[in-house]
């Protein structure tokens, strides 16, 4: 998962939880959390228990989320060298955008978000548990002039998938699919299509939903087949190299433990053999190449037209 994908995901999460983005660039966000996001992300049960008991106005935390560490740090260094440390915040405001007056110069906890970081995994888990399924309708561009005129909407199953390529190294991809439940058409990059539309959880007036001819189970199967077909076209040289490293590591530990077993006393051999088996299992888990696919979230999206 690259920095751009992480950045898009973080922005979508912040916006969907009504957080106030104070400042942003392609490399970072300065954000004041909403009460919902603060409850989920900051682990302050006693504070929120106090707020709930007393009805006090909540004071949520603010964070600097860095989605591209190299680019952000380079910008900070350049501005510090140019203007001096006292002017860095003001210079960053000119470079990256507007800084709210109440937070300019304030020190915020910094979180570097990259694949494998604890905070990003927390955001993934929050998205999975809190927004794993939605049902939305496209908002019409203009109101129909005639009150009896009705627009046909097609229901789509939208599914975002994470594909992880794992061995002693890791790589991740995000794939977004959409399947028309009316026609069975399966498209990729469905999330990009949705990003340009205004959506609402309520059915707009003067709209009727096209009849579905594809079940959700069948649509999910179509996405699985499409993704599997796509993955079959990939170059898996990395897996062959990982399998070679696995074999070499297994040979090394076998050589080490075989020597220990040969020289050990009889009563110690059982313990050494157990260590050997555990170590082989650890090496196998670390180096064995594998591809894992999992659903991040999904929804039914009703879009204008019959597709």
Taking the alpha carbons of the first and last residues, their distance comes to: 31 Å
Class of secondary structure makeup: alpha/beta
Which sheet architecture does the biggest sheet show?
A: 7 strands, mixed
- Based on Cα principal axes, name the global outline: extended
Question: How many domains would you count in the coordinates?
Answer: 3
Question: Whole-number average pLDDT?
Answer: 85
Summary, kept brief:
The chain is of the alpha/beta class and 307 residues long. Helix content is 46%, strand content 24%.
Describe this structure in words.
- With 307 residues, the protein is α/β, with parallel strands linked by helices.
- It folds into 3 domains: 3-125, no CATH class; 132-235 and 291-304, no CATH class; 237-288.
- The protein has 10 helices and 11 strands.
- The chain has helices at residues 3-16, 35-41, 45-54, 69-83, 88-96, 118-131, 190-195, 216-232, 237-263, 266-287; strands at residues 20-25, 28-32, 62-66, 110-112, 133-138, 151-166, 170-180, 186-188, 199-200, 207-209, 290-304.
- The strands form 2 sheets. Strands 5, 6, 7, 8, 9, 10 and 11 form a 7-stranded mixed β-sheet that branches. The protein has a 4-stranded mixed β-sheet with strand order 1-2-3-4, covered by helices on one side.
- The longest helix has 27 residues, at 237-263.
- The model is unreliable at 91-105 (pLDDT under 50).
How would you summarize the topology of this molecule?
Blueprint: H1 3-16, E1 20-25, E2 28-32, H2 35-41, H3 45-54, E3 62-66, H4 69-83, H5 88-96, E4 110-112, H6 118-131, E5 133-138, E6 151-166, E7 170-180, E8 186-188, H7 190-195, E9 199-200, E10 207-209, H8 216-232, H9 237-263, H10 266-287, E11 290-304
Parallel strand pairs: 3-4, 5-11, 6-10
Antiparallel strand pairs: 1-2, 2-3, 5-9, 6-7, 6-11, 7-8
